[in-house]
Design brief:
Layout (H helix, E strand, L loop, with lengths): L2 H27 L5 H28 L1 E4 L6 E2 L3 H6 L6 E5 L6 E8 L5
Antiparallel strand pairs: 1-2, 1-4, 3-4
Bound molecules: zinc ion.
Length: 114
């Protein structure tokens, strides 16, 4: 699978699972489904959202490297550092592998495809 289709798939996954949760909430609110079915569907929806977000995070991790603000060194953080690091859309707080300083590293896409 190409990098682009993985990104698109992960976005669809998140959107579809959130839509599933919203539809379940509406059906339950309108009493169109039983309370027990609503609970089951809500649990399934939350599991799907969790899987979709994990997949999206994995794709984002695999396709990005980060540039240190202090020394300019570009590196790939460990998945743990990536996952738990505070972040914005384009930056993530990571400890540089070269100089050891924690800075708001700028995200760069890995150019090589599959
Ligand atoms: Zn550095």
């Amino acid at each position: 699978m190409s990098k682009k289709s993985k990104i698109i798939l992960s976005i669809i996954g998140v959107v579809a699972s959130v839509a599933f949760l919203v539809i379940t909430a509406i059906l339950a609110e309108e009493a169109m489904i039983s309370a027990s079915l609503a609970v089951v569907l809500t649990v399934i929806a939350i599991i799907l959202i969790f899987i979709a977000i994990s997949f999206a995070a994995k794709v984002d991790y695999e396709t990005g490297v980060y540039e240190c603000r202090n020394c300019g060194y570009t590196f790939k953080p460990t998945f743990k550092a990536y996952f738990f690091g505070m972040h914005t859309i384009t930056t993530r707080r990571l400890k540089c592998l070269e100089c050891g300083k924690s800075t708001w590293c700028k995200r760069r896409s890995v150019e090589k495809g599959e």
